[in-house]
Write a structure and sequence with these properties.
alpha/beta, Rossmann fold, seven-stranded mixed beta sheet, two-stranded antiparallel sheet, 9 strands
Length: 224
């Protein structure tokens, strides 16, 4: 059998986006929405997920499932990526902090929607790969550094939005401090077997409000 070309992969990517739309509609009661924003869906359609997974897994890149990327880590399933991005609602004028770059797929989605993305990754090999890949795909608005994501990136704070792609028992205090008033943070919160996708809103006075959505399962946020 011949290998898939870009045309085939584009068809699979469209099917992936169509499936995401179906899943959102089916889960509309839990999510509080029946559709995701068209900007988010357009970004999911543009970003070539097959380039953000190990080459042998490229044919499976557009299935709605997490895929291993090494070091016992995975790239999240497309539905979860789209949902977390929609909850975050990044805007063209905003600066977004991402915790957990991985190979850069979520960062690429954010770069399609936000003005600037700052991403922290604790695994050096992942950060190096992302730094090579993202600029070559035209994502010049992503900055990456190696470090402990629970500490954020103080030099570029405060941030309009923060997205954490790993779970913790509670949001790290440093991240909440680096979040602008009237900003929001999206992350999985809870113990290993009880994680819930959570949105934390910070009001103009700095008070925090928590909204909980669906059960999820992420790897734990590593600290140094």
């Amino acid at each position: 059998m011949r290998p898939m070309n870009e045309k085939h992969l584009a068809v699979l990517r469209r099917h992936m986006v169509e499936l995401i739309a179906i899943y959102v509609e089916l889960a509309s009661e839990e999510l509080g929405r029946a559709v995701l924003h068209e900007r988010v869906m357009a970004a999911m359609l543009r970003v070539p997920r097959h380039l953000f997974v190990p080459a042998p897994l490229a044919p499976s890149a557009y299935e709605d499932m997490p895929l291993p990327i090494g070091f016992d880590k995975t790239v999240s399933q497309p539905f979860i990526v789209a949902l977390m991005t929609d909850l975050l609602a990044p805007q063209p004028h905003e600066a977004v902090l991402e915790i957990g770059t991985g190979l850069g797929y979520q960062a690429a989605i954010l770069a399609e929607l936000a003005g600037q993305v700052w991403s922290v990754e604790i695994i050096e090999e992942f950060a190096a790969r992302s730094e090579d890949l993202l600029p070559g795909l035209g994502y010049a608005n992503v900055g990456i550094r190696v470090g402990d994501g629970s500490r954020g990136w103080p030099e570029h704070a405060p941030f309009d939005k923060i997205l954490v792609t790993a779970a913790a028992e509670r949001p790290p205090p440093a991240l909440l401090e680096q979040l602008k008033p009237e900003g929001l943070l999206v992350m999985p919160v809870g113990p290993e077997n009880g994680q819930v996708l959570t949105v934390i809103d910070k009001d103009a006075a700095g008070q925090l409000k928590t909204r909980k959505f669906i059960p999820v399962r992420f790897s734990r946020l590593e600290t140094a």
